[in-house]
Known about the structure:
Layout: H1 2-12, H2 31-71, H3 74-87, H4 90-97, H5 106-147, H6 152-162
Helix pairs in contact: 3-4, 3-5
Amino acid sequence: MATNSIVAQLADTPKMTKLGQAEASDAKPDPKQRIFDSYIRMTEKDVRKQQKLERDRDKAIVANLSNALGALDEDLRRDIFAGLEGLASTSQRKLIATHPLRPDGVDELVEQVDAARAKEAEKAKAQREAERRQKEREQFERLKEKFGPDGESASTDDDGADA
């Protein structure tokens, strides 16, 4: 008996569409909603197409990378491996370092890249600190002018005390 009431209730409930809206059998679809749904489908299709192109392009590069690296002279391979490892995470660096076409001397170049990056980071940090100190100094000077002995607020208080 309970099953019949559930079936009756479910039969009276409208179905849900893909976007989570109740489907009304006798209602006309909203033209704005149809346009929006069409736009969403078209955009999703374009995104999937672009992602597939990127995957295929990456596969093509990876498939030909060993042949291309083998055709290059050692100095150029050293620069390429230094560039790859210089931008990679630690775990990726370890994997790249095991490549059979990786020439000697890459570790020194990567250390130079890391040192240069650390030096730039220190410069940026020092610059930010100098800017912060300058802002604090400017704020201090504004407060000093406002509340100092020669400031407007202090002179108003002094004039009121003498009167």
